[in-house]
Amino acid sequence: MKAYLLIALRLIHVFASALWVGAVFVYLFFVKPTVRSIGLVGPKFMQNLTTRTRYPMFMVTVSLLTVLAGAVLYLNTSGGFNTAWLSSGPWIGFTVGSLAGLAAFFVGNFGIGPTAGAMGALGQKIAKAGGPPSPEDLSMLRRLEKKLDQAETIDFVLVSIAMLTMATARYWVF
Ligand code: HEM
Question: Ligand 1 in contact with 167 (CB < 6 A)?
Answer without folding.
Answer: yes
